[in-house]
Amino acid sequence: MTAATDNERTHVVAVLGRGVIDADLPVVTADDLGLTRGDGCFDSARVVTDPTGSAHVVDLDGHLTRLACSAAALAIASPPREDWQALVAEALACWSTPGEGTLKLVLTRGREWQSSGPTALVTLTHRGPERPTVAPGDSRPAPSITAVTLSSGLPADAFAGAPWLLGGVKTLAYAVNVAAVREARGRGADDAIFVTTDGYALEGTTSALLVARDGALLATPTGDTGILESVTVTSILSRAPGHGLTGRHELVPVADLFRAQGVWLVSSSRGPVQVTTLDGIALAHDGETAERVLRLAGF
Amino acid sequence: MTAATDNERTHVVAVLGRGVIDADLPVVTADDLGLTRGDGCFDSARVVTDPTGSAHVVDLDGHLTRLACSAAALAIASPPREDWQALVAEALACWSTPGEGTLKLVLTRGREWQSSGPTALVTLTHRGPERPTVAPGDSRPAPSITAVTLSSGLPADAFAGAPWLLGGVKTLAYAVNVAAVREARGRGADDAIFVTTDGYALEGTTSALLVARDGALLATPTGDTGILESVTVTSILSRAPGHGLTGRHELVPVADLFRAQGVWLVSSSRGPVQVTTLDGIALAHDGETAERVLRLAGF
C-alpha cells in the first residue's frame, strides 16, 4: 500500500513497552489523561540525517533534561533516561529519510480507569530537505516570518509563587497556543508573540523570543514570567561571547521590538526564524547579526 | 477474563465511525492533536439508571449545545448533533449498571499527519450507587468538601477582547486544573477555588461556583471572566424564582465567601457540593438553603 509506505518514511512512532508501531495505529486509550486533560508533557528536538543516511538528535540530553523537569513539575514518574534513550534509538533505527526531522517526546500521566503507569512515546516527523547553511556573503534569504502581538492576559510576574499555573512546564495543554496561531493567521500573519498586560514581550506560540538590541542578544527570563527555558536560546546565549556578542536574560518592552536590530522566534527544530513585520510594521534586519545568530544556533 | 468483564461494566467507550469498542483498546494515534496539543474540547453529563435498568443522560441537549459552542470557538467542525446522539445511544445500549454514571463527550481536531477529520468519542463511567435524595427533615448529610483559594494569575476581565485565550471554552487543555487539585490536596483540602488577582472568586477546578449571599444565589458571570457557562448552574438560577429564591450572575469578592450562607462547587455529574471549610476556615451552612439548592439542581 503506497500510502502506508509513504507514511513509514515520513513518520515513525515508538511507544514504550511496544516499540516501533505503524504510525496509523491508535496508541492511547479513551481514558488516557494526556488526551482527556492535557495532563502530561512533551519536548521537541531537531533530527539531522547526514549524507550517509545516519540520523542523530541535536542535544538529546538537553531535551531529556527539560522533559524530566516538566515531568517533575507535574508529579509524573517519568521513565528512566535510559528508557527514553533506547526508545529514541529504536525510532532512529527506522529513519533514513534525507533532510531534517523533528523528534517529539510525549509523556502522559497514563490511564484514569486503571493504574497503567505513565504513557511514554516518541515520534519522528520529516520536516523537508536539509536546510541550506547561510554562508558569509550568501544571498539566500534566512527563514523569516511575520507576526502579530497578542495579550497573554497576564502580567509579567503572574507565575511568582504559583506553581499550579505550571509556568515553565511544557505541558500537553497547548490549546491557547493553537488558538493564538489561528488568530494570527486570521490577521494575515504567520505567528503571534505573546505580550504581558504590563507591556513586555514574552514568547512565540511554539517558540522562544530572542531580540538584538543595543548590541546585545536578549532572551525572556524564565521563572516568574512562566516562560519555558529554551534549549536553543540557552545555547545561543552561552556561545555568544565567543562570537563577539553579549547575551543575557532581560524582559524586553514591546515598544523595543520596533527599534531592535533583529527579532527572532527560536525553536529547536526550526532554529532562529527572523520576524520581518510585527503588527504590520516592518522590523529592522541587520544582516551580519542575523548571520551570527543562525551560526550560534548551529543552523 | 474477570478484569475485562469488570471493565466492561464500569466503562463504555464508543468512537464515531467505529462504534462501541473494548475500553482497554487504544483509540487515538500518536499525532492526534487532542493528545499532542490538548487541541479539542469535551463536555460531561450525568447519567442515571432507573430501577428497570434503563439509563438516560440528564440534559443531553444542553451539553451537546455547549460542546458545539466549544467546537465553534476552536474552529473544529463538530459532527452533526444527530451523530453525537446516535453515538451516545450506542454507548447507553451497553449500559445497565445500577446507580449513577458520567457521560463524557470528547472532540479533537483529529490527526496532524493526514486529514482524517475530527476525532469524536464518548465514554460512560460508573460513579457509584444511586445518590440518596435529600428529603425534608432527612438527617443524611449532603455531599461536602473542603477547599483552598488559589490564584488564577489573571484579573477578572482578562478574557475581554481576547478570544485566543479561549475563555468559556471547555478545552482538553486542563493541566493547570489538575495541578491546582494537586496543590489543594498538598494543603490538606479536597479542591481549589480559583480567585482573580483583583480579588474575586471564579470557579472550582472542574466545577462552577455558586454562593448564597443576602438571600440570593450568585453565580460567576461568563464572558470577560473566561468562566464556562455551567449547565447545572444555569438550570438552578432559572428555576430559583419558582422556589422562593432569587438568582443572578455577579462577581463575588473572595472575602464574601466567608460571610455567605453557603458556598457550592457545582458540576453536572456531582451536582452542588457544599464547601465546608475554605483555607481552613469553617464556612456557614444554612440547612434549608442547602436543601433547596440540591432540589433546584435535580439532586
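qc> Chain A touches chain B through 61 residues (CB under 8 Å).
qc> done
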